[in-house]
Design goal:
Chain lengths: 664, 82
């Protein structure tokens, strides 16, 4: 960083003193060879201070200003080349400052020896009453945090994992530094905060005991009026406009602001939080809350969207705030929804209204949970043909804003995966059993704190069956097509159907906060941590990465076995006739679900949607105004895409059938 | 089954499911606009029609039906295979 340095000679010291500078011991002040003494004004040097070359300029608020140190007390700092430090309220102390750094108009910037800068702080996530303590470290990912917070049944695993993470936290504790090209302007006090390269901190009110990770590819921004204590903020995050953070982890490309407050909470890749409040929140990737009066408390969420005023309660005024909730991936809550914890909501479900019973419905994914006359009711599988689900599934991968070279959180985006399909299989079977055992006179049946209209038991099972059929046959037909492209012979091609993986229980999957994994792989990981064969944080990350890489392989074993169970066909001996039947099954199911999604999307342009348009105008004028504001089903991109996909289903079916017929 | 009988059953089922008086329901009524059947209720209504007529309908076609008259025609076409 620094060129050869010199102790100051007497004429340099005299010049510095003349420029208002001082030091109790000038021999501890070292300047780089080309460092211009002219560029020090009103500087008090305390202890060991070294300064790099300062002959360039650096931009501040769009204006080129000279590098150097002006109106500041500098204590025990190593300062790089091309740095400008100006107008410091009290002191810049105990910092290693990289090249090209701008520090201007800051109340104080102080590091303490061996400060951990947030590393090692324990967060009470998911359960506000404790018991799921998760330690802040710079390298935390949504998966490692999940392992710490949610895998608590195995004491030996918890102990070894904690020890492993604690070791990493200690390695990370190396005192305060400011990375190259960082810019810290117009801020209040900053104490024990490690600031990464290219980070921008502007107008922050108070930052204490934290790390701001940043990189050239994706600089991190901490903005106006932010108050943060005990935190780690990851690359590409933007925290601004009065956010208040206390014991918080912020993942890559997260945005928090507009007075959002959070304590004992973690936010992973691409989360967004504005206006609302988070307490003991485990916000897995893509958890989004944008509105005032929204509280997300004591819960596990991911791919979640909170409506305004969404609320949950974790306190029954008995043993304290000990209740927790699980909203599996893809859930949404409607405006002013309320969920009593403990509750467990199935994946991709929507919660509307206020629910005062404990809901336990993990096997009813894609459902609408709503309130009617104070009772909590559910329509199983209704979200399967909501255009919103389709849109969500497509938008998440496109909205992955992480630009860092290493994307820390491992994310499998698939809406339909072994995880959700297996839940639907379980749900389908439960609904059919309930339907068989419920007399016709009964209007509703109870299910996990919810009521299901008896008439919807078979309906829900039918929706799930459609989605399962579409998934399995789609994947099998795709695989056949792939294999036939490589091998122009039916028997040889289908012989390669056997899965490469050898899972014992391929149907059991889990969602490690974004990463879908066969449960036995997670058990293997637990055993490796217990036995010590995973002994470092890096080894833990490598193991998780192998799960991510292996997803398609494990998924295929799930499909292979589930297809065999559902259709009693062993895939390596599938006949051409059976394959053609499979594509036919896929076509029917895909067509049916797609048509329902298409109808749902068109409803967005029906008469109902026109309420409030064309105020005091004629029907014709209303139609024109609606078309000018909202467009029409004929012009809307999403509707047209779904319409096009309906045609593609037929085309694909025809192509596949022709391929199978013509192959030897 | 005559169209009249189908109409009576559609209206009776609609009234029961949407908590309305039979006399308040007209063939021209739009399920969503006039009778307040949101998308959740529409699903329940289709399930109730299926049970009352003892048949299974094509879901996507059923969800296209907008009005009481449309529902009567829809079931008339299935039952009487027009």
């Amino acid at each position: 960083m620094l060129k050869p340095q010199n102790m100051l000679n007497q004429s340099q010291i005299s010049a510095l003193i003349q420029q208002g500078c001082n030091s109790s011991d000038w021999s501890n002040v070292i300047l780089a060879e080309q460092c211009e003494p002219d560029r020090f004004r009103n500087v008090i040097f305390i202890g060991n201070v070294s300064v790099g070359n300062n002959n360039g300029t650096i931009q501040s608020d769009g204006i080129d200003l000279p590098c150097g140190i002006y109106n500041a007390i500098i204590s025990n700092c190593t300062i790089g080349n091309g740095v400008r430090i100006a107008n410091i309220g009290s002191v810049v102390a105990n910092c290693i400052i990289g090249d090209e750094v701008l520090i201007e108009n800051v109340a104080s910037l102080v590091g303490e020896t061996n400060s951990s800068c947030g590393n090692g702080v324990e967060l009470d996530v998911v359960n506000e009453g404790g018991g799921r303590g998760t330690m802040l470290i710079n390298q935390m990912t949504s998966q490692t945090a999940y392992l710490q917070a949610l895998v608590r049944h195995n004491a030996a695993f918890t102990k070894n994992l904690s020890a492993l993470i604690e070791r990493q936290a200690k390695v990370n504790c190396s005192g305060m530094s400011i990375g190259e090209n960082a810019r810290i302007i117009h801020c209040g006090a900053i104490k024990n905060v490690n600031i990464g390269p290219f980070a921008t901190i502007h107008g922050s009110q108070n930052l204490e005991n934290g790390t701001i990770l940043s990189c050239p590819k994706h600089p991190t921004e901490v903005g106006e009026a932010v108050l943060a204590k005990s935190f780690i903020i990851s690359e590409g995050a933007k925290i601004d406009s009065g956010a208040i953070l206390d014991k918080v982890f912020i993942g890559q490309a997260v945005k928090l602001g507009k007075q959002f407050s959070a304590e004992n909470s973690m936010f992973f890749a691409n989360c967004e939080g504005f206006h609302g409040e988070a307490v003991s929140l485990f916000a897995g990737p893509y958890t989004v809350t944008h509105h005032k009066s929204t509280l997300l408390i004591a819960g596990l969420f991911s791919f979640f969207n909170a409506g305004s005023g969404s609320n949950q309660s974790n306190h029954m005024y008995k043993l304290g705030p000990v209740h927790q909730g699980v909203f599996e991936r893809g859930c949404k809550t409607g405006s002013f929804s309320y969920v009593l914890l403990e509750s467990h909501i199935g994946a991709f479900s929507v919660v509307i209204g206020k629910h005062f019973t404990n809901i336990n419905a993990p096997n009813l994914p894609f459902s609408y949970i709503h309130e009617e006359d104070g009772a909590s009711k559910v329509i199983p599988g209704m979200n399967l043909f909501s255009v919103g689900t389709v849109r969500d599934g497509e938008k998440w991968p496109k909205r992955d804003n992480r630009k860092s070279l290493i994307k820390k959180d491992l994310i499998i985006f698939d809406v339909f995966s072994p995880y959700t399909v297996e839940k639907m299989l379980l749900g389908r079977n439960e609904l059919l059993a309930l339907s068989d055992s419920t007399p016709k006179e009964k209007a509703y049946v109870n299910y996990g704190g919810l009521q299901i209209n008896r008439l919807l038991l078979r309906k829900g099972a039918k929706y799930y069956a459609l989605a399962i059929t579409r998934y399995l046959n789609d994947k099998v037909c795709s695989r056949i097509s792939e294999l036939l492209e490589q091998e122009n012979n039916w028997e040889k091609a289908t012989a390669s159907f056997k899965p490469q993986s050898q899972l014992q229980r391929a149907s059991e999957w889990t969602d490690i906060s974004g990463l879908l994994v066969p449960r036995e792989k997670l058990v293997e990981l637990e055993e490796k941590v217990v036995s010590g064969s995973i002994a470092s944080f890096d080894e833990l990350l490598t193991e998780l990465q192998s799960f991510y890489v292996g997803y398609k392989k494990y998924e295929w074993q799930y499909i292979y076995e589930t297809f065999s169970k559902e259709y009693h066909i062993l895939l390596e001996s599938i006949t051409k006739e059976q394959a053609i039947k499979s594509i036919d099954e896929w076509q029917k199911a895909a067509n049916s679900l797609h048509s329902m999604v298409f109808e749902d999307s068109k409803r967005e342009f029906g008469n109902f949607a026109k309420i409030g348009y064309g105020i005091d105008k004629s029907e014709e004028e209303t139609d024109h105004e609606f078309a000018s504001v909202r467009g029409s089903a004929e012009t809307n991109g999403v509707v047209q895409k779904i319409s096009k996909e309906l045609i593609e289903i037929q085309e694909r079916c025809q192509q596949f059938t022709n391929l199978v017929i013509t192959i030897k | 089954m005559t169209r009249q009988e189908i109409a009576e059953r559609v209206i009776k089922t609609t009234a029961r499911e949407l908590h309305l008086n039979i006399s308040d329901i007209r063939e021209s009524d739009n399920f969503a606009m006039e009778l307040g059947a949101d998308s959740l209720k529409s699903i329940e209504l289709v399930a109730a029609f299926e049970e009352d007529f003892d048949l299974s309908v094509n879901e996507e076609e059923a969800l296209q039906v907008q009005s009481v008259g449309g529902a009567i025609d829809f079931f008339d076409s299935i039952i009487n295979k027009k």
